[in-house]
Amino acid sequence: MRNEKKRILKPKYQLNSIEDLLIHIDSYSENIINLDECQINIDLDFRILLKELKKNPKFSNKIIIRNDINEFGFNVFYCTLKIPFRSETTIYSKGAYFELVEFEKYVQFLGAVFESDYSFKKSVFQSSANFSTVDFETKKNTNISSSFFRTIFKRDVNFYNAYFHSLANFRLATFYEGIEIGMAEFANIDLSDVEMKAEAKLINYHQSIFHKVNNRITGLYLKQHALKMNDSVTALKFKKMEMDAYRKSLIRGIPKMKSTSVKLIVNRIDIGADYFILFLNKISNSHGNSYLRGILFTLTVWFVFFSWFIIKRDGIGSNFIWTDGIYLKEAVNYFWLFSGIEGLIKEKSINWGQIFPFFTGKILIAYGIYQTIIAFRKYFK
């Protein structure tokens, strides 16, 4: 993950109050709200800014503010902006909230930096929106960020080389055209229940960096999109994220009720079994992405379980098992799955302490070989 965003220009204007903002917009804007190359050092509530701008004759007929409504416990209002909004290379030092705003003209945030909380929740972009090279450094809890929740993009939107330090929340967002995300970096992303219209697609998604997905549905969506593009290699990477998210959700989903009903016990057993299989898949080949991990897993279980079996059978001798020629020959034979079974059965002093590591090791070796082959297959699809 990048440590620091390279900014295009240092800001020319320092704006420390709503009054500074209003004077700057009035001085540098004509049929447009222009905040280019500004550093805004106040907690910016965009709704208040628009309300004040509406008092200016230059903008009064181009800003529409609708009645207040109560939503999620605080007062917000719908408003429409009939003029373009430009905010290139702007640094928002405090919170920036563009919620429930309808942007009728183009929106330009090229090179902007959000150093604190930001939100475009439930806003509508009627024209193109450019968020390329934007640095989203939200300080909110990474799992509850609203950012682009239920946002509607009627035209193309550009997130090229954007950097989301925490959760990029696009849950329930709607896209009508292309979403450029080439070279973008996502620390975490939520695309659950996103609606993609007929012409909408993720552009250059394979050039982006996804560190994790917020839930299984997001991983599934990205995987299916890659498969639709006949990109099986990237689809496997998204499958890994999907399974990792699912595995984590299983632990959170284990019922915490104190009831001992049969149904609840069976449910916990099912969850535990799913978690165990997903854990094995992760460590054995990273969900089909790493044949090297498959080889390492196979060799590790071979070493561990053969050593365990010999120690249980013969005890700890004076020689290290893996430097003794006799044991080395037996170890090679142990690697072959059906070798040694007949001799073990004939052994009169056999006990479960020997049977368990002997057969468990062979099962896991077979599993490791299978997982290695599965991981190799991604290069031949």
Indicate the radius of gyration in whole angstroms.
Answer: 29 Å
End-to-end distance: 30 Å
* Structural class determined from secondary elements: alpha/beta
How would you sum up the major sheet?
8 strands, parallel
Strand arrangement in the largest pleated sheet = 1-3-8-12-16-19-22-25
**Annotation, overall tally of beta strands:** 25
Percent strand equals 15-25%
What is the mean pLDDT?
A: 86
User: What best-fitting shape do the alpha-carbon axes yield?
Assistant: elongated
Helix content: 25-40%
Low-confidence stretches: none
Question: What is the overall number of helices?
Answer: 9
What's the structural blueprint in terms of helices and strands?
Elements: E1 13-15, H1 18-28, E2 33-34, E3 38-40, E4 44-45, H2 46-53, E5 63-71, E6 74-81, E7 85-86, E8 91-92, E9 96-97, E10 101-103, E11 107-108, E12 113-114, E13 118-119, E14 124-125, E15 129-130, E16 135-136, E17 152-153, E18 157-158, E19 163-169, E20 174-175, E21 179-180, E22 185-190, E23 195-196, E24 202-203, E25 209-210, H3 216-228, H4 232-253, H5 262-285, H6 291-314, H7 325-335, H8 341-346, H9 352-377
Parallel strand pairs: 1-3, 2-7, 3-8, 4-9, 6-10, 7-11, 8-12, 9-13, 10-14, 11-15, 12-16, 14-17, 15-18, 16-19, 17-20, 18-21, 19-22, 20-23, 21-24, 22-25
Antiparallel strand pairs: 5-6
Helix pairs in contact: 3-4, 4-5, 6-7, 6-9
